[in-house]
TrEMBL record:
One of its GO terms (cellular component) is mediator complex. CDD domains: Prefoldin_UXT. This is Uncharacterized protein. One of its GO terms (biological process) is positive regulation of transcription by RNA polymerase II. Coiled coil: none annotated. One of its GO terms (molecular function) is transcription corepressor activity. Belongs to the UXT family.
Amino acid sequence: MKQASEESKEARPVSQSEIDAKLLKYESFIDDKLKPDLRKILEKRDQIDRELSQYLQLRNTLEMIREQKLKVFETQVDVGCSFYLQAEVKDLSKVMVKIGADVFVELSPDQALTYIGKKEKFLSHRSELLTEQAAQVKAHIAFVIEASRELMNISGEKEKKMRDDFM
């Protein structure tokens, strides 16, 4: 009785077709699930980083206006398709700030700086979370690749054993 249960516990040899099927499954999982997930995460992070960059640029501009006590500000405005026009801002007492979903609010420079500080923290945190998610997906990809290598190594060891048996 013991002998039968011990024999059933022994690992049965894995066929090359089973290894090939498993390798194909791993490859499909990487290509169909993990890589698209990683691409989406990185795209979201890049979008957040671009938005964060715009807020930082606005903060720097507002601080420069405040430090230099400017009454008029000359700038270039993007009117679309990276086409810029010269503009002169004569009233610096109010600033239009995007608060999300293409909604803008008129704020004083001090209010805008307060809002921008909060938005920077929020966007930085979101960017960090997405970076961590991307690292996790990359780790999963590396894990699956390593599992595939181990399967290929099992296959390679089988072939080597067969060659050694015949020699």
